[in-house]
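One chain shown below:
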Amino acid sequence: MRNNIQIVIVEDDKDLGAGLCKALKDDSRSIVSCEDLKSAREQIFLTKPALILLDINLPDGNGLDLVREIREKKLSYPVILLSANDTDSDIVKGLELGADDYVTKPFSLSVLRARVNTQLRKSEPLAVGEVVTIGGYSFDFARMIFSIDGEEVSLSKTEQRLIKMLVSNRGITLSRDDLIDRLWTDGAEYVDENALSVAIKRLRDKLKAKDYIKTVYGLGYMWVKDDE
């Protein structure tokens, strides 16, 4: 894990916020706690946090609006949402806006720590690899720079890992279970299958890759080879 990283916790429940700070702090991390969107915006946009833990229901607004702002500014900080709302529609909305994970209250602190650690691992630079060029696409996995016909496309950390897996296995069907395990859980905890469907849709839309990212019904997904 990287040293001297910062985690921003946005939670208006003071007792829960204090518990989260205590549970997540260690020698390699500094924790900043915010109780509303105003202070969260000031902290997030003036610094470079390694991860944001964000409650949805806050006294001065909705945390989903902050997720939208973060992604509109093309910032790829991992965001884990916290909420008592556990309906599929709420989960899908959060993920579609660009959140990387979603934890419903009440939750186990040990499970939350595992999810935080998973997102922090994903944020670390991936192994240096070649620049892959496919048609008008250029995928620079060393620098995490992606472009279509020379125009750069901003991808979240989850989308970066997803496209790397698909492109590295061109012509091979990757099962849903395998993708879910490698993208979110590392086998450690449950993730709603909607998360993968949402991530695939967002990736297709951003890369305009409906002809490349193929759904293999009942199995999973693949990046098709040029000759297929």
Observations:
- The CA atoms of residues 89 and 162 lie 23 Å apart.
- The chain has two domains: 5-123, 131-223.
